[in-house]
Design a protein that fits this description.
By secondary structure, this protein is mainly alpha-helical. It has 3 helices and no strands. Helix 2 crosses helix 3.
Length: about 60
């Protein structure tokens, strides 16, 4: 399992909250792939970690 630092998690939560292109309900795999393709998120972030980020952001 990859390590997701608290700072990176906070930055990803803020980015996801500000992003208007994310549909609700969110699919963690889809959001993860979108963020990786944009270069915002490292590919080592797992779907479980992305699910947690979406929950903190209030999108799940």
């Amino acid at each position: 399992m990859s390590c997701l630092t608290r700072q990176l998690q906070k930055q990803l939560v803020r980015y996801v909250q500000r992003s208007a292109k994310i549909d609700t309900p969110c699919d963690p795999a889809h959001v993860r792939n979108e963020l990786i393709s944009k270069g915002v998120c490292p590919s080592s972030v797992t779907e479980g970690q992305m699910r947690q980020i979406l929950e903190v952001a209030g999108l799940m």
